Predict the 3D structure of the following.
Amino acid sequence: MTLRPILRWPDPRLAQVCAPVDDVKSVRTLAQDMLETMYAAPGRGLAAPQVGELVRLFVMDTSGADAPPAPMICINPSITNVDSPLVEMDEGCLSIPGIRVSVPRPSRVALHFADGFGTQHDMQLDGFAALCAQHELDHLNGIVTLDRINQNDRSRLIAEYEAQ
Ligand code: ZN
């Protein structure tokens, strides 16, 4: 496994819509590299475009700090919003280090994806896991947290980011 450099916003590759994965086998090594890169960062989620690969794949581990690791590989993921209230969390992003952005998102979603073996899953996610999956799926559509807030907050946070 190999640690991959993480692209920093505003790298234009972070603004691209990623292509579906045709063959799960073709991204197995990439997925393992991404998990290793995510844990090393450390982070809780990482999407393929963040390491410069424009394919629909993200990894995440939303287990608690004291829980055993629970790595997830999500290939060609899609999200269905379950009827649930919007919640906000200060979201960090490995591609926008040092900046936290509060984004309103549904607190519960259904995540459909294929794992590293091509097995299809339908998973109900709540709370942090639901928000994390939505953040990562946004990356596959070329969207970062800064694209989901109003212009004033966006300008203020970009100024903060550039001043670091
Ligand atoms: Zn991110």
